[in-house]
């Protein structure tokens, strides 16, 4: 928050890929306003999302991306597959909670 305005957001949802119903939950919609990037905010949001998944009893969290694979690999996520989303191939990553 900056002056009572959010500088980023993230969501944790049950399902994000209909062809992968056994993979749950999914980290989605990570965004940090450009003025606040490179300050660890994205990492803090991801960590908090993983914490919520753990408290809810999940042992893994999934996401897909085509643009930030290395970002997540740097924080211990592992590639577990690929999926086509709206005609584009995305990499599925997993993090043990």
Question: How would you characterize the overall build of this protein?
Answer:
- With 97 residues, the protein is an alpha+beta fold.
- The protein has a single domain, classed as Gcn5-related N-acetyltransferase (GNAT) (Aminopeptidase), CATH 3.40.630.
- Helix content is 21%, strand content 37%.
- It contains two helices and five strands; from the N terminus they run ββαβαββ.
- The chain has a three-stranded antiparallel sheet with strand order 3-5-4. Strands 1-2 form a two-stranded antiparallel ribbon.
- β4 and β5 form a beta hairpin.
- The protein is globular and about 40 Å long.
Task: Considering the chains and any ligands shown, give keywords for the structure.
single chain; 97 residues; alpha+beta; Aminopeptidase; three-stranded antiparallel β-sheet; 2 helices; 37% strand
Describe what is shown at a glance:
Helix content is 21%, strand content 37%.
Chain-averaged pLDDT: 95
Number of helices: 2
- Order of strands in the sheet with the most strands? 3-5-4
User: What's the number of domains?
Assistant: 1
β-strand number = 5
Segments where pLDDT lies below 50 for 5+ residues?
Answer: none
CATH homologous superfamily annotation: Gcn5-related N-acetyltransferase (GNAT)
Q: Which fold name is given in CATH as the topology?
A: Aminopeptidase
Name the structural class: alpha+beta
Strand content: 35-45%
Shape: globular
Reading the helices and strands in chain order gives EEHEHEE
Radius of gyration: 14 Å
CATH class: Alpha Beta
